[in-house]
Queue: 2 jobs
Job 1
Amino acid sequence: MIRRLYDWLMRLAAHPRSLWAMAGVSFAESSFFPIPPDAMLVPMVLARPERAWVLAGVCTAASVVGGLFGYAIGYFLYETLGQFLISIYGYEDKFDAFRAAYNEWGLWIILIKGMTPIPYKLVTIASGLTQFDLVVFFLASVATRGVRFFLVAALLRQFGPPIREFVERYLTAVTTAFLVLVIGGIVAARYVI
């Protein structure tokens, strides 16, 4: 099953509309969707390393725009949609403490959490909820998301063939490690917030 999913992702990576699909996932992940865009970025760069910079740029831009949507959820819709999204991830009991910390350390929280597997949507919603400075939020999001996605693209572009061979040889272990990382980020966020 994992091999079929991997083969499907590699075929999708070569599809003419794959860039739009990755942009959609990247946008959604920054505001409400649980799957990180790396799930599409990695196979797309492995399949087309010559497009690594374009892919990282689209991923970054869509993530930042999605982050602005998450900010709007926190700013305008926290009482309805924002609380619902926070409760889905099981953070409602710790979110008030996170909001207090955010008022003091907001910029550092954006910079650090934007590069980790901790769900970025928590940062975007919290930024809107605390009415964090929108320009600083935007610039920090561009920096942190850009570093994350361009670093992934650069590593895959530079070391792509051996990485692709490793991934294909140990696909189950790599997939498991990726899922552990994503789930670990969500669990870590529950204890950090």
Job 2
Amino acid sequence: MLFPHLKDAHVIACDEHGLVRTSRDFAGHVARLRDDGVRRLVILIGGADGLDPSILDAADGKMAFGPQTWPHALARVMLGEQVYRAVTILAGSPYHRD
């Protein structure tokens, strides 16, 4: 097992070839994981050259921020925003507008 310390976590790797979801779809995915009993969600962001193929293969899923190329440092901010947005969607907050 590549992630022995994360054996009880659902691991999503950020990758340019990953699944592109809307914010509402991402929130739904997080809700399904929660409802399935997943207590830890880990989202991996690689370096400027991405994640090692062995990490991508070991991840439970892959996600992308879209077809554009984004600076590596900005990916952390974008991911933080999407996680916050997912939580507010699930809480019924008016923060997200379709």
